[in-house]
């Protein structure tokens, strides 16, 4: 099961409404993006309408990082505006704690 399907299924079981786009550009282009409480995105410096992902107003931006918890990746996640990070592969208890 892919990380996206796994997290979708798990978060749904916790009672959260989950929207999966499968494509970062498609997700970031949503007009209702700021209404979401949690956005899970990989480490990226992608731009949306000329704005970096770190500039988006967000209650939570969660970025997955490698399983080793590579310090440069963690630092990059926070520099990009992440409120938290999640080690890969996903651990449901860690995800539950963060959410």
Helix content bin: 25-40%
How can the largest sheet be summarized?
Answer: 3 strands, parallel
Instruction: Specify the structural class.
Output: alpha/beta
Mean pLDDT: 75
Beta-strand percent range: 15-25%
SSE order: HHEEEEHEH
Tell me, briefly, the overall form.
Answer: globular
Counting H and I runs of at least 4 residues, what is the number of helices? 4
Strand order, largest beta sheet: 1-4-5
Number-wise, the strands total 5
* Low-confidence residue ranges: none
User: What is the CA-CA span between the terminal residues?
Assistant: 21 Å
What Rg, in angstroms, do the CA atoms define?
13 Å
Descriptive keywords:
99 residues, alpha/beta, two-stranded antiparallel ribbon, 5 strands
Q: Can you walk through the features of this model?
A:
With 99 residues, this protein is an alpha/beta fold. It is 32% helix and 15% strand. The longest helix is centred in the N-terminal third of the chain and has 11 residues. It starts with a helix and ends with a helix. The mean pLDDT is 75.
Short description:
The protein has 99 residues and is α/β, with parallel strands linked by helices. It has four helices and five strands, in the order ααββββαβα. Strands 1-4-5 form a three-stranded parallel beta sheet, with helices on both faces. A two-stranded antiparallel sheet has the order 2-3.
List the helices and strands and how they pair.
Layout: H1 3-13, H2 24-28, E1 39-40, E2 47-48, E3 51-52, E4 61-65, H3 71-79, E5 84-87, H4 92-98
Parallel strand pairs: 1-4, 4-5
Antiparallel strand pairs: 2-3
